[in-house]
Write a sequence for this structure.
């Protein structure tokens, strides 16, 4: 089974894709809020490795630990590719980041971000990994080829 070999620790391999602060709408003369609606991120994501972070300090309680959910969407053949299929959601911890590995099944993705209904404000930041994506199987094949070349060189005189 192959495994990706990534250079996640190199800051130059990450690109900021999206950053926005979302605010709940005040209602009832300042005595309540309408929940922050789910937001379709206005980008087509072309790489499958993301870091999604949330941040808020407005009206939060110490028992709250969810900043939101990120849901990848892909277009599929229904209605001439105008329908999106939901690939499930990842919970993003409040005031933290989460590494997201999207399945390698589509050339690009859309993302939807939603936040708990009680949040008054939420900042969301998305980084995309743009560094090398080596595969452990490809590396092993390369090592085997090198060893075979060495053995062939020992067996057949030039």
């Amino acid at each position: 089974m192959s495994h990706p070999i990534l250079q996640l620790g190199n800051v130059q391999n990450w690109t900021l894709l999206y950053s926005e602060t979302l605010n709940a709408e005040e209602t009832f003369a300042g005595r309540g809020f309408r929940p922050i609606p789910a937001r379709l991120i206005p980008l087509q994501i072309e790489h499958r490795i993301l870091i999604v972070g949330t941040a808020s300090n407005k009206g939060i309680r110490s028992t709250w630990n969810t900043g939101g959910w990120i849901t990848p969407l892909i277009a599929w053949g229904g209605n001439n590719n105008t329908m999106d299929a939901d690939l499930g959601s990842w919970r993003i911890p409040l005031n933290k980041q989460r590494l997201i590995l999207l399945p390698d099944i589509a050339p690009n993705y859309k993302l939807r971000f939603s936040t708990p209904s009680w949040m008054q404000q939420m900042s969301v930041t998305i980084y995309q990994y743009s560094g090398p994506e080596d595969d452990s199987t490809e590396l092993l094949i390369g090592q085997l080829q090198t060893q075979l070349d060495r053995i062939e060189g020992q067996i057949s005189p030039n």
The longest strand covers residues 66-76. The mean pLDDT is 84.
